[in-house]
Specification:
- Helix 2 crosses helix 7 (158-189) and helix 4 (61-100) packs across helix 7.
- The chain is 83% helix and 0% strand.
- It starts with a helix and ends with a helix.
- The chain is built from 13 helices and no strands.
- The chain is mainly α.
């Protein structure tokens, strides 16, 4: 039965309104996409905790959701707040130190230490650092001033950050309380089969757990133990460098060595040989064992995606989407592979 011209116009107008509404909803939600994504991630991670609280209060899902959020605040938000404040304080100290430091004198002293050590093996060894001193001095000064400006201007975004945090807490409350309802809405309105919707949602949940409980948890633990080691053996600003060590641990083949090795060299060239040896042992025994023991355990329970692809997705996500890109990248990659698995049976049926 052919459609009349009036019916076609009505259909076209309906789809125009529908697509326009999708676009406008996307525009409205875009400023808060990170808050929404963060709430979804935390809801997935702490879903077992909420279910456990709910078993104790089966008739009070709202109260169970509120109690779970309070637990999360104690476990997650308060420590992160104190840690962030400490990192900002230490970063300011580093910036001020770099501005005030006589970089050329530091380079001369370091070069003399290296020459003395190497000349015990190669008597004619010399280092020419004149050009390097000039370039480094200007680079350090400009970088320190730029970072100091960023740190000073960072307070401007404080109100936006607080608003995003409050919104995340509100969304998280309703995700815990009404998560099953939201899931039913998605499967009901999705044009895919219910089993396919379930498969996609399950796969994405596995990805969140794998990335957070795998790479990120290991990075946090390695950063924590790196910071403890730096504190014990007297390296300045251990919280800041511990955080950078945790970030470095996300990169295979680099790891915490990117921070611990320069710290060991710093201790060695400042005549703290025992401390340098102690930090080296700490890095190999304590920090290294965290990766060797926990990494296989977490990834065996997560998604079966090659670590190289996860690394590329994490780095690409960070470059494309910013700080939360470490999560967006693996989620997009996992969605792609899930759809690819679903695509194969469709092709074979044809």
């Amino acid at each position: 039965m052919k459609k009349t011209t009036e019916e076609k116009i009505q259909n076209y107008f309906f789809f125009f309104l529908f697509l326009s509404s999708i676009f406008l909803v996307a525009v409205i939600f875009t400023p808060f996409i990170n808050s929404i994504a963060l709430s979804l991630v935390i809801a997935v991670i702490f879903k077992p905790l909420y279910q456990r609280v709910l078993t104790e209060l089966p008739n009070y899902p709202s109260l169970a959701s509120l109690i779970t959020i309070m637990f999360i605040g104690v476990i997650l938000i308060l420590p992160l707040s104190f840690l962030s404040a400490q990192i900002v304080n230490e970063a300011q100290n580093v910036a001020v130190t770099l501005v005030d430091a006589d970089t050329e004198t530091i380079i001369d002293e370091s070069a003399l230490e290296i020459e003395t050590a190497v000349q015990t093996v190669l008597p004619n060894f010399e280092l020419n650092v004149d050009d390097f001193k000039q370039k480094t001095s200007s680079f350090v000064l400009s970088s320190a001033l730029d970072n100091w400006t960023l740190l000073k201007n960072g307070t401007i975004t404080a109100a936006h950050t607080i608003l995003g945090l409050v919104l995340s807490i509100i969304i998280l409350y309703f995700l815990f309380r009404d998560g099953k309802k939201f899931k039913k809405y998605i499967t009901h309105y999705s044009p895919l089969k219910n089993k396919d919707d379930e498969k996609i949602i399950t796969k994405l949940e596995q990805t969140v757990n794998s990335v957070i409980r795998g790479a990120l948890v290991i990075a946090v633990i390695q950063g924590f133990f790196s910071g403890i080691g730096l504190l014990i053996f007297g390296v300045p600003n251990p919280t800041l460098w511990g955080m950078l060590a945790g970030i470095g641990s996300l990169v295979p083949g680099v790891g915490t060595v990117i921070v611990l090795l320069p710290a060991i060299l710093y201790l060695f060239f400042t005549s703290q040989t025992l401390a340098a040896i102690g930090l080296a042992v700490w890095g190999v025994v304590v920090v290294g064992l965290v990766d060797n023991i926990l990494m296989p355990y977490f990834y065996s329970r997560g998604v079966q995606i090659h670590p190289v692809l996860i690394l590329i997705s994490v780095l690409g996500g960070l470059l494309t989407f910013g700080p939360l890109g470490f999560l967006y990248g693996p989620l997009i990659l996992s969605l792609f592979f899930t759809l690819l698995e679903m695509y194969q049976p469709i092709v074979m049926d044809k």
